[in-house]
Target: Tail assembly chaperone
Amino acid sequence: MAEKNIILSIGGTDFNFAVDTASYNKYVNEIKPDDKVSPSIRFARRSLTDEKQRAALDDLCDQGLAVDVAGALVEAFRPAVEIEVKNLPSGSKH
Model:
């Protein structure tokens, strides 16, 4: 299982996170069309490595930054890879 230690500098404060495959997959599975904020908050909290920063992270999430924080963690965790469809089955409309 892959794990990455990620430091996000948010408003001049460094926050330390550890994101692993299980946590990432749980986050993706929790997201629903009408619920993105709560899963983002839970993902950020689960990944935070310093509990002393919990209140500061919660303040940021209360200011509407939960999805941004989770997005930055996902971007840093996932590898940069290009995926391209080379051929489609005949009769496909894509």
Observations:
- The first strand starts at residue 3 and ends at 10.
- The mean pLDDT is 93.
